[in-house]
Each structure stands twice: as C-alpha cells, then as structure tokens.
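Hi team, as promised in this morning's meeting, here are the two structures we talked about. I've kept the exact order from the run log so nobody has to guess. The first one is mostly here for context; it's the second one we should focus on when we meet again. Sequence first, then the predicted structure tokens.
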Amino acid sequence: MKHRSIVILVLILLVIFISSFLLISCSGKEKVSKTVKPTPEVPSPAKDTESGTNISNSSADSGSGTAKDESDKTTAIPASDEVKLDKIQQLFAKEGFQIPKNELASIDFQLEDLEGNKRSLSSFKGKVVFLNFWATWCPPCRAEIASMEKLYKRLKGKGLEIIGVDLQEDKKLVRDFVNEYKMTYTVLLDTTGRVGQIYGARSIPTSYIIDRNGMIMARTIGGRQWDTEEIHNLFNEILKK
C-alpha cells in the first residue's frame, strides 16, 4: 500500500512538472511573436529621368562595356536662371540646352579615328566643336545622324567641326555603320569608355558645344533635330565670334 502511494505521488509530481514546462514554453513563443518586427520593404531603385539611352542597360544588351561613374568636372552645368544671359546663351536656353553658370574649359583627350590616326580635341582649337557621344546600338543616336550631317555640310565652311565619339565598340562595326549612314564628319573611338566617363556621358547621345577657344558653351542630353532654322541661326551666331 505504501509503495502504491509513492508511485501515485511520483506520477502527480511528473504531471505538474510537464504542465509547468508547457506553460513556460507557450509563454515564451508568445513573447517572441510579439517582439519580432516585419521585414521592411526594400525600396525600388531610382528611375533615370534623363532623356536618351541609358548606357548601363543598353551596353549590357549589346555586349559592350559599361562606363563607371566617377567624379565629373565637366557635366555639373547648373541652371542659369539667376545669371544674366548674353544673346547666344539666350538662344541656347530657348532650345533647351544646359548652360554653365561660370566659365568651363573643355578637358583635352586623344583618341584614334577610323584610319588609326591619333586625334586630340585641342587640335580642333580655333573651330567651333560639336562634341557628340554616341554608339551604333543607340536608337536616338541613329535618329539624329542625318540632321547632324545636314548641319555639318551647311556650316563646316564657316568653322564648324563635328566630332562623334563612339563609346566602346569595335572599329570594323563602327566603320561599316559610318559607311552605311554616309557620315562625313570626324568619328573617334573611345574603346575603353574613359573619355565618356570624363564627360559624364551616362546617357547617350550627349552633346557639348565648345567655342573656338576650347570653352564649353552648352550641353544637351538626348537626341534632337539639328537641321532646324533655329539651330542653324544659333550656330551662325556662334560662328560669328
């Protein structure tokens, strides 16, 4: 009888222990569930608001390299609403160009042309330079070539020089494209993308207008028609200086 009582007592103590353990376990789970915060939503990447073709996306599709972002001394061209504009600057602003608030010198570079000759930007000093960063795979670049050719043929005798800097493409591919599109202005090959990086050409086409003394007058991003009367009048005013 005494033995039986001991067994019953042990069983009661075991039940009490197990019940206490379960209560503690449930309480712990409840506390954890109340303190765990939901995972915050990952923000979506910012969208590129500039016109033109984004180099990173398009060059990856075409198999060409991607230019890395780096500090850029030539493309920080702020809006000039608070600056008194001269006649030429007013014409630029009317056509939607970006104008430097202060004097901004172009950065010299040297690249090969399609014949393998080394050409530097400074070698064109004394002419008004239309510096255009482009690539054969870029739709807005292709769309503006015909109007650039018309502008060049109309004004090259007055001192206009167009330099098309192709970004990171094979020489044969570019030469075949130039022949197909009957491009007669200067085309240089930026095979590493280094010059495009210096001039901040993250979207193309990106174009700079540089005066006879090598100073940047204006910049525009995205394709446009270059053979309008307004653009011709603008360049005629520049070429008078």
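And here is the second protein, the one for discussion:
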Amino acid sequence: MATSSLLPASYVAAQSPGAAAARLAGGILGTLARGKSFDAAAWARLLELLWGDLTEDPLRQLCWSFSEAWPDYRPMHALNACRLALFLALAQGRSEPQAEALALAALLYDVGMWHPRLACVLHGGPLTEQERDALSRHSALGQEMLAAVAGLDPLAARLAREHHERPDGSGYPDSTPRNSHHEASSLVQLVDSFLGQVEPRPFRKARTPADAMGRLLLQSQRGHYDAAALRSLLMGVGLYPLGSVVRLSGGETALVRGVNPDDLKRPPLLLLTDAEGSPRERPLSIALADYPAQSVIDVQ
C-alpha cells in the first residue's frame, strides 16, 4: 500500500505544487525575479497560512510525502525552506518578529535560481560543465537581486550569499570560515541541504527524511556544518524527522508527529495502521516512550 494513501488528505494536499501556499511562494519569487519588487501582501497571506498550521498542527505543513518530482521544483523548495525555518524558529522560542524575519529570508535565499540566466536549472538531466559553472554563481546573483529591493531586511541578501558556505571554508562563492557566517546562515545551510535530499527531482529519487538527517550528522562530523545549528535542527525535527513514516517492531506503520528530547529514537507518533497493516479509521496518537517493547525498525 502506498504510504501517501495512509496519510490524512490535508497533509498530502499541502505538499502539492497546486496548493495555495506553493502558489503564493512561487508568485513572490517570480515577481521578485522579474521586477525586483517584493509582494508584501502575498507574503502576509502566506505567513498567515503557515503560522496557523504550524502552531495548531505542524504536520499539515511538514509531512515530507511527495508523490512525484515537479517540473519546476523552485516554488516548493522555497515554500519548504520557509515553513521549516519558521517551525524551527518557533521551536527555539524566538520572538514573533525574529521568527518572521528568518522565515522570509528562508523563502528568498535561493532566488538566484530564478535569474533568467539560469534557465538550465529546469533541465531534467545532467548539466554541462558550463551550466554547472553558471549555477555556482546563483548565491551571488541572489544577493544582488535581494540587495536591490528597497525596504527588504538585509538578512535575506546575506543568507542568499552564504547558504552554500561551509564552516570549514570549503563552500562557495567566497569559501569563508564559520566565524564570518551569520548564525541564521548556518541554520539555512542545513535546511537547504536537508530539503535538497528529501525533495524529488526529475533526475533522481528523494531520500527519506531519516536518511537525509543521518547524512547531515555524518557530514557535520567532517566539518561541513555548524554543530550548534545541527543541534537546533535535530532537536527541532528529530532523528526521525517530523513527518517521517516509520514501521514499528509490532508491525504498525506510523507517522512521526514530534520530538522526544530525552530519547530521539522514541518519538511521539500517529499510528496509521494496526499490527496487521490494515489502515486505522482514525490515526491513534501515542508516545513511543510509553511502549518499551516497541521500537522503530524501518523508515519509509
């Protein structure tokens, strides 16, 4: 049985490129790229939509179930970065203005990919060396585009330039070390890398959220990511990230609905099936920590 068929319909619908939030995100980025103007009214509508869901039922926005690759991945990528950054800001206890500033910067940081010179980003196959070289300039292009928008928080332009930098100085475009990066850039570097793995692309399949998190942990040990930022991500979404579908030792399929800070391997869950694999009429909310005989044995 397909995993998406077990999920609440509202969770699946929120991951569609045709959903209201995705259309708003794409419109904001497209308008900015074409005219160097920022649609503040559309941003206010998007923020209201995300804020309501993330404070009432985060899974409505953070269930990483994508049925297929999108012809143009950019609107959904921008939306995913925005809503994940907003959720993490709330989890960290940031003030409302701070959370909104981070969410906006996360929505816009990859705007360089919308530059007319980078149409190759929509190709469905391998890029040429010339195209890869052009894409490597998108961070600097994004900074230039955002810096030209009057009244926009300068944080957005800084994150656009720094989101592919790395603490060990191995990133681009400037190969700068950790102590020169904005604190928010260190978090968005991880958000970008996480989403780049869990989102499908025309030329490759998506990884599971847990696989993506495992790779980030390994790469962090090698100096590719800031340890404090990684801890913020890990404590915000978990080792089996919020929205992951897992299988339990008892046979049930479940959706990760939260984080257990005392034991990241035993998160709060929504049971989607019974032990025989039959779908439940209504998902059952449990804390895996209350069931010591049960454990996660697979992530789908």
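Starting points for discussion:
DSSP finds 13 helices and five strands in the chain.
The chain has two domains: 3-243, 244-300.
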